Amino acid sequence: SKIGEYYGRHGQIDQATEQFSQMLDFARKNRLKKVEITALSNLALCKAQLGKFLDAIESWKLILPKNRDVERRINILSNISAGYGYVGEGSLSLKYAFDALNTAEINKLEELKISPLINIGTAYERDQMHQKALDYWLIALDLAKRFNATQSLYNVLNNIALAYNALENKELALKYAFESLELREKCAFMEELAAPLNNIGFIYETHGDPDSALEYYEKALEKYRLGNEYSSMANCIANFASIHIKKGDYQKARGYLEEALETVRRTDAQNVAVRVMNMLAEVYAKLGDYVKAYEYMRQTMNIENELNANRKENSISVNEANYYKRKIELQAEAYRKKNKELKHKNKLIRETGVELQKRNAVLNHTVEVLNWLVSVISHDVRAPLGNFTRMLGMMLDGSIAKEEHEEILQSLKNSGEHVYKLVDEMLDGIRLQRRKLDFYVDLVRQDLVPILMSIFSIYLPIAIRKRIDLTYNFSEEVIEALVDTDLFKIVIRNLLNNALKFTDEQGSVDISVSHEGDYVRLCVSDTGKGMDSKTIKAINDGLVPEINKDRVDDGIGLGLSLCRNALLRMNSSLEIESSPGKGSKISMNFPIKGH
Length: 595
Prior knowledge:
The chain is of the alpha+beta class. 70% of the residues lie in helices and 7% in strands.
């Protein structure tokens, strides 16, 4: 065991694998269960380091039921999560990460929460949810610093750098990337410097500095070739190709990509393989070899279809929902034990059951809405953006006559504004959906007038452009109420956006605020299209009104339903007075004092 561990620590993975295989054979022949588990665990780590993640996962799953030690179980769950992340199974990665996090929380093992938090962030990052990934990584960073967990510290610093890069904050991205590099230079092996060097190169590439990017990619590749991290090495080699594609040197890019593909095929890292084959398809198309381009595209589609099929069964939203559901169930169990001798025990349990059913209904509905959002992004956002690229390319290469440019640019502008509105509404909806799963609301007594005036000033130019009379009527100069600032802003923005969207020229929209006893009453009125009773009932039931899946010209229908849920979190409610063709009046009461 010690010899194998020595080889493993010094990057001699083949020798380590041989030692642990001999150890496993010896343990099985002599029925030494503990030794067998140790050997299997170490062999799995060797397989993972060689990029054989599926083999490693199979070994860890074999060990898991046999291991009753809580700390080891958490580590195994985290390893399985990381393995699924490398093979592109983000939803399964998230499932095991939440299992590990939940086990660590139940047993109050704060340090062992670090790896699950990193894995959860990685799953969200791969699903393009950069801010959510960053939130989890920052929590992991605090824990890693508190417990002086060096390995975890430079891993999470690396990840945070990538998140800030995706969020277009170059300064913070480079700060964390160089911090990770400096830490590794002090206490890591040479090959472990590769990841931060590669990330620094990627940050420079993203921000338009290809020469600096190549400099760091070369340093990174030199370090990767010292070790056995073939999936990361392949990704780094593909980064060279990315630079040469941007420079138009497709032959050179092809050479790098063929090497990257040969390297990644030594592993199970499907997400890297998909990236490399997509790039090869693009390069061969540019070189005029459409047969090879099609073949690589077909292989990519087969892998992605397989991954997508699994995502449907284990969606990220469902895994997150199950995590919070388990937390609610644990709370209910705690209440049951504390109050088992009290007469109202059964009542508490019934109420908890009803609450779980309600939350499950909301979560199921959330999954449906999020699936619809993915559909909107796929068809109504991605398609116009692809069209932008093609049309601009044709304009640049002279395929379209200059006299037609103005008309085409106007069309692209209109399409861009439509896509912007869709994305803006989706982001508001996603923010509110996330807040629904949060137990904490920051209710603060504050003056609503400055907040309303700042929002009013944003929408006034829109109203003027549409020839709509936008007015406000505040009963006093200072009107205070208990609200969560972020939720309040999103609610008012959604209400004003809806009012202006569905009100025709020469119409009017008005915001009024006044005191009514212990409450502040806020109303948004318009002379727009109005709503029928069926739509109002759907909103009051907490559901999104029926979405027209063939038409999203007027938005995607999330606004009022999500406003209602946000208001409930602030101890308020939505009152709707409306009828078709006669406009709408949306009213809500906010408490002035806490209960």
